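Final report, Chapter 2: Outcomes

The project's central promise was a pipeline that accepts a single protein chain and returns its three-dimensional structure in a standardized token representation, suitable for archiving and comparison. That pipeline is now operational. To close this chapter, we reproduce one record exactly as it appears in the project archive, with the input sequence first and the structure output second.
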Amino acid sequence: MYLPTDVIDRAAKRLEIPTLGLAGAPRVSITGRGQVLAELHKGIVAYTGDCVEFQVKNGRIRVRGSGLRLEAMDQGALLISGIISSVEFL
């Protein structure tokens, strides 16, 4: 079921919860230059030591850097470590 963004925003404000949780948007947490934790991913598209690209609900996310390693992955989250230089939303 599709809900317009303004409906989601109003509902989130009334319920006092983050909008992102309602929309199913991916959550990306960056810790320094060494780790990226991505939640609500839909699978890895590309993986090298310099680039990890993964699918999310409305597009893709690309993590660039050097010495990148996939430390952990399950259906809902993945943890990338190495020297992070950028995170791009495609």
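Archive annotation: The first strand starts at residue 27 and ends at 31.
This record, like all others produced under the grant, will remain available to the consortium after the project formally closes.
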